[in-house]
Amino acid sequence: MRGAMIYAPGDIRFETLDDPEILNPTDAIIRTAVTCVCGSDLWPYRGLEQADEPHPMGHEYVGFVEEVGSEVTSVKQGQFVIGSFATSDNTCANCLNGFQSSCLHREFMTTCQADRIRIPNAQGTLVATEHVPGKELWPSLLAVSDVMGTGWWAADAAEVKPGSTAVVVGDGAVGLCAVIAAREMGAERIIAMSRHASRQKLAREFGATDIVAERGEEGVERIRELTGGIGADSVLECVGTNEAMQQALHSARPGGNVGFVGVPHDVGVDGQELFFSHVGLRGGPAPVRRYLPDLVGRVLTGAIEPGRVFDLTLPLDEVAEGYRAMDERRAIKTLLKP
Amino acid sequence: MRGAMIYAPGDIRFETLDDPEILNPTDAIIRTAVTCVCGSDLWPYRGLEQADEPHPMGHEYVGFVEEVGSEVTSVKQGQFVIGSFATSDNTCANCLNGFQSSCLHREFMTTCQADRIRIPNAQGTLVATEHVPGKELWPSLLAVSDVMGTGWWAADAAEVKPGSTAVVVGDGAVGLCAVIAAREMGAERIIAMSRHASRQKLAREFGATDIVAERGEEGVERIRELTGGIGADSVLECVGTNEAMQQALHSARPGGNVGFVGVPHDVGVDGQELFFSHVGLRGGPAPVRRYLPDLVGRVLTGAIEPGRVFDLTLPLDEVAEGYRAMDERRAIKTLLKP
C-alpha cells in the first residue's frame, strides 16, 4: 500500500509501506474512499508537537471494507463505512455512558492518509451505510468521522439550546462545522469569530448570524456588546491555544457553558477566575461514535453539508502539498483521493 | 448594635458598633434571629486572606424585619426572613438565568455576626415564611442561607441524578450538606471523603453510603475501586484547595461532572488534562436565592435537617470562642444566638 509519513516538521513523504493486516480478531481492513488532512496534523507539521522518529499520519477516513477479523460481525466485505478518529468497542462502561472516545480499549487512528487502513475495534467503531452513497456525499461523510463530529461535540458540550446565543471561537474546519451544529441545535444567534473573508462567507452560509473579527479581550468586548453586556449562553472553543481558551471563557455569560474541542497546548485555567465566572467547562476528544448514526443520517438527507469545508482536493500522492496549502492558509482543509 | 470585628488573624472582637441604617430605598434592616461562623471565615482568621484594616464579619443570617426602604414591598416589618450570603435584585439578566449570585447589583454580605443587619437588595434577596417558624427550625433555616444552599449547588453543578454515584470531597458543614443534597436528588451511592469519626457519623446519618478516609491520589484510587475502575458520575468539591480540586477531578469518570463550591485558593486546572478526562467542571458562589423557596419548604416539612451541622451553640458575644473552636476542629460549625 501507499501512505503518508512525517519525517520532521514540514517533511511529509508519500511512500510505499507494508500492507495492513488483521492483527486482532476485532480488526478490519478498509480500502480508503477518501481521506484528508486535519488542522491537528499541523501541530507536528509545524514542530509544535515532538516526534522521535518518522511515523504515518492521518486519522480521518471513509472506505470500503476489504476484510474483517473473526469477531467482527457488524460490517462486511464491500460495505461503505464511516468511523471515528478514536476507535471504541462500544460496549465498555465509558462507551455505554456515551464517551466512546474514552473507551477502555480506545486506540487513536494514526495511519489514515493511505489507500488501505487497519481499523482496530472495528465492531464498535465502524458504521455502514445501507447502500454505497453517491461520490458527491463522500466528503461530507468523511467530515463526520472527525471535524463534523467534533463540531457537534463542541455544541453539545457547550449545551447549545434552541433560542440560545452561541459563539464559535476558531474558523478552521472544526469551527465551521461547529456553526453547522449550533444551527442544527436551534441556536438563534450564532457569532463566528473570524478574520478571513472566505471563512466568514462559509460561516454565514452554514448559519452564522454575526461575524466578529476582533480577537482576545477586544473580541470579548465585542461579544459583550452583542449580548446585552453579559456574554453568550454557549461558547464553542475550536482552536486549542491558551489565548482562544481565555477568550472563550471570558465570552460566556455567568452560568453559560464553554465546550472546548481544540487539543489544548499550554492551556491553563485559573480556579478562582472560573469560580467567580459561574461558567461550566467541558471538552475532550469528540465521542464521534455516539453521534455517527444521527450525523450520517443528516448528511444522507442533505440536512447538513460539512464536506463544503474541503476547499482543496488533491490526489492522495500529493498529500505533502495538502499540508503546505493548509499551513500557509491557502486552504481550509484538503481532501485526498486515492 | 453589637457585632464581631476581625482585627488581625486570630483576633476577633465583639464590639459596640453604629446601628445599621437604610442607605438605599432597596435596603431592609433585620434583627438577627440566629447567625453563625462559616468555614470560609477561617481563611482570614488563619491569615490566609489578607485584610488591610479591621472589618466586620459574617454572611449567614435569619431574622425579623425591622424596617424596609421605600422600594421594598415583598417583605414587611415583623416577618421572619431567610436570605443569602450574596444579595441580588432577582430581576437582572443573570438573576433571570438562575445565577443570582452573579446579580449585576450583587453585594456580598459581610456584617452578619451582629444583632442587627442591613440587607441590600432586600426585595430580591429575602424570602419570608408564612408564619414565624418554631425556634427548633431556626438553625436549619439559617443553614439554608449559605451551607445548605451551597451544598445543593455543589450537587446541582455536579449534575447529580437519580441512581447515580456521588463523591463528596470535604467533610465540613458544606460537604455534609452536599451529602444531604445528593441524597435528596436521588443519588444511589454517596461516598463521603472524611477522616473524622464525628463527621463520618453525621455524613452517614445524612445519607452517605460509603466513607473513604484516604486523601489525594490514594483517595482517588479508593474511589476507582468503588466505582468499577472508571470513577464517579458526580464529584462535589467542598474545600477550595488545589489538592481537593485535583482529587475531585481525578475521581470523576469520563463524562462525569465536578461541582466546585469551596472558594478556590491557588487552584489551577491543566487544560490538556481536563480535555482528556472528559470531565465537566462548574463552580462558583451558590445561587442560593434560586433554591430558597424549595429548600425552606424542605426544612419546614422536616425533609432535611441541615441545622444538625451546628455542633456548638454560643451566645453571640462569645463569637471569638466560636472561631477558635472551629479553627481547632473542636466544632464543625458554631451557631450564635444574639
Protein model, in words:
The structure is a homodimer of 338-residue chains. In chain A, 58% of the residues are buried. Chain A is built from twelve helices and 17 strands. The longest helix of chain A has 13 residues, at 288-300. Chain A starts with a strand and ends with a strand. Chain A has two domains: 2-146 and 287-337, Medium-chain alcohol dehydrogenases, catalytic domain (Quinone Oxidoreductase, Chain A, domain 1); 150-283, 3-Layer(aba) Sandwich (Rossmann fold). The mean pLDDT of chain A is 97. Chain A is globular and about 60 Å long. In chain A, β16, α12 and β17 (334-337) form a beta-alpha-beta unit. In chain A, the strands form three sheets. In chain A, strands 3, 5, 6, 7, 8, 16 and 17 form a seven-stranded mixed sheet that branches. Chain A has a six-stranded parallel sheet with strand order 11-10-9-12-13-15, with helices on both faces. In chain A, 30% of the residues lie in helices and 25% in strands. With 338 residues, the first copy, chain A, is α/β, with parallel strands linked by helices. β14 (268-270) of chain A pairs antiparallel with β14 of chain B.
